């Protein structure tokens, strides 16, 4: 299954943004890419090899952002019970999928929900990775 180029470019931009956040690291549990801070996942990036539809999953605790994310084409509360905790899965290849800039905003919000205060303070002070 071919991955649409625009979705792949968006995915790469969001991945680069996520890994540029203070203390962020990429790991590959379950064979998929995740970005973690302080050993906790803040964004599930999935796989980019075309074996599964390109999507990302973020934790959105802000009700407005959470509601907005769920209006994205194909978006849904994350599986495995994560949806109850505010996690949303957002497909990237759907027609009308959010722009990379908006996705990065959501990744940052997810990061802020999970990162320790000292790292969010570093982010606020302008420190990027």
UniProtKB/TrEMBL annotation:
Annotated protein name in UniProt: MmcQ/YjbR family DNA-binding protein
Membrane-spanning segments: none
Gene3D superfamilies: 3.90.1150.30
Keywords (A to Z) from UniProt: DNA-binding
InterPro entries: YjbR-like_sf, YjbR/MT2646/Rv2570-like
GO molecular function, one term: DNA binding
